[in-house]
Amino acid sequence: MADTLEFNEIYQEVKGSMNDGRLRLSRQGVIFKNSKTGKVDNIQASELAEGVWRRVALGHGLKLLTKNGHVYKYDGFRESEFDKLSDFFKAHYRLELAEKDLCVKGWNWGTVRFGGQLLSFDIGEQPVFEIPLSNVSQCTTGKNEVTLEFHQNDDAEVSLMEVRFYVPPTQEDGVDPVEAFAQNVLSKADVIQATGDAICIFRELQCLTPRGRYDIRIYPTFLHLHGKTFDYKIPYTTVLRLFLLPHKDQRQMFFVISLDPPIKQGQTRYHFLILLFSKDEDISLTLNMNEEEVEKRFEGRLTKNMSGSLYEMVSRVMKALVNRKITVPGNFQGHSGAQCITCSYKASSGLLYPLERGFIYVHKPPVHIRFDEISFVNFARGTTTTRSFDFEIETKQGTQYTFSSIEREEYGKLFDFVNAKKLNIKNRGLKEGMKQSYDEYADSDEDQHDAYLERMKEEGKIREENANDSSDGSGEETDESFNPGEEDDDVAEEFDSNASASSSSGDGDSDRGEKKPAKKAKIVKDRKPRKKQVESKKGKDPNAPKRPMSAYMLWLNANREKIKSDHPGISITDLSKKAGELWKAMSKEKKEEWDRKAEDARRDYEKAMKEYSVGNKSESSKMERSKKKKKKQEKQMKGKVEKKGASSKSSSSTKSPAKNMSESFKSKEFVSSDESSSGESKKEDSEDERGASPAQSSEDSASGSD
Fold it and tell me: Where is the composition biased (Acidic residues) (predicted)?
């Protein structure tokens, strides 16, 4: 039997919404990754208490109950997959996958059972419907009624908002069945009750979304934003991610809280809470708890009295309460040295931060895109100016994000970053080895480092020094692809030269007519020799001695076949990795043997190079002598040709003056305005020659008459 089972397009019921994703069952437990948010639910095999298989609206579903009372529902299975799942549960989890059908009688009278975080309405032994109590947002009581209100689901077209239960009175003394029902619901419901004092309060913090200044009260289970006009209560269970991002001006910090589900104000939904801090603001904070409670609850992550930068205190407290890692920018550094890129998204300008596992744009509207949901990226020319370019991202769901007006100097850095993360680039097309190496079931927040002030400063200094030393001027060659000015110059030159050859110019355009052919000559004559020079530089002498191999390469060539035989079917990359591991594990004595062979090979190479260089010198001297002889011969041949040409000119002028006249004469049909306007210098030269030739012919005729 297989150790893992994987299912695509499985739907998980969370707070009334069906979130699609991928489900994996393994020996260790059950993992579900939400395709929309990237959130990962991990249920350990030791925690599973019960598994139920039943028919639901989307085919068949699997309900899992854990020992601590949590319930997980997954729908979208086919009926034929029951046997496979049942055998897997028996073999690896030692659980019987029970089949239980829902009651479809349509009765509205039954028994309510509370089990863990689930309210089940049963008729007899069959359940009619189940309500996860975490979906309940409010619970109110009447005379004989209990009303449950639910969180609104933004993704669904129709949401269930309220259910009322009629509770008949009983004869038991001292027990109110309505209050007992309500208490069972409230004990597990996601109802925010501001009871007791806040752990700490941050006054007048600047908030960008929702806009305004808010007092933030930190409670054990939720966050309370209190403003002049609006109040928001945010349970920590809705916090998805935390980001700490330095502003480009290096004087401010963004603290971003990603929420799912979002907070609502009328028809507006805020998926991100963005706070802006100045680095100069400091605060001394005292938690409203005694030291023993602080130590017991936070286990050293917080202390009763703390002081430091305001943004550091807020992020530290939120990290401890939410129990989520804080995401900070990775190793990316832009052209100006900042860890972000200035750009525009939709109608407003903002900052794009390349992270280790995604991109985030702040601030209006905030956007977070994970690498594992990106289909491809595209670098496009700017629509309004040639000094900028656009960066386009398309997700696997077909959503497209266009970040425009990015400075051309940022292209090299951004292209190197995208290339290093192995994202598909549309301009270049798909290439082998560019597949994303992300684990399909890995949480997008894994492997992120903590964001504390001292660590951030130290890492920032190290990154700046490394970037300045190693990557000065990187991206200059790639930037040329976004340099339309050069291409425009080339087009203009070709257009001008064609225009001078094909179109006729006026009498006053003689200067322009002379300049344009010069540009054409520049294009044709200057560029071709450059290619030849480059080709001649690239060529290597095949007779030159080959460079010696290192000790590692000598060992690898001798042991390659052995490694292949020990690991049949191994790929080239895996072979090189394996060879590197074997070489590292090798003892010094064995390595010294290959070092001696490498040293002998190096001596032989140096000896061969000396002989090769001596031979080259003698050959080059012979070549120089032969070149000098050729030059002398060419000069002698040119002198003879010139003498013959002068004698033939004089004889032809005496013999056929009529012929010369006929060649120089052209009728009106063949005379163009272009020649008459642009060839003045040629006319002068021809007139001088004609003036000389009649003089010679008159002398010859005079001598003939004598």
Answer: 474-496
Residue range 472-479: average pLDDT?
A: 41
Single pTM value for the model: 0.54
Q: CB of 289 within 8 A of CB of 304?
A: yes
pLDDT tens sequence across 128-163: 888 888 788 788 888 889 998 887 766 667 788 889
* DSSP labels, 251-267: SEEEEEEEEEEEEEETT
Last residue of a domain, one of 274, 294, 324: 324
DSSP state, residue 425: B
Task: Give pairs for 537-545: CB < 8 Å, separation 24+.
Answer: 543/612, 544/612, 545/605, 545/608, 545/609, 545/612
Q: Residue 358 — pLDDT band, cuts 50, 70, 90?
A: very high
Higher pLDDT, 112 or 188: 112
Angle between helices 588-655 and 680-705 (to 10 degrees): 40
Per DSSP, 501 falls in state H
**Domain's final residue, options 268, 293, 324:** 324
Domain residues for 175?
A: 111-187
Instruction: Provide CB contacts within 8 A for 496, sequence distance 6+.
Output: 516, 519, 520
Q: Are 234 and 242 in contact (CB under 8 A)?
A: no
Backbone angles phi, psi at 403, to 5 degrees: -105, 110
Q: Are 391 and 411 in contact, with CB atoms under 8 Å apart? A: no
The order of strands in the sheet holding 145-150 is: 136-141, 145-150, 162-166
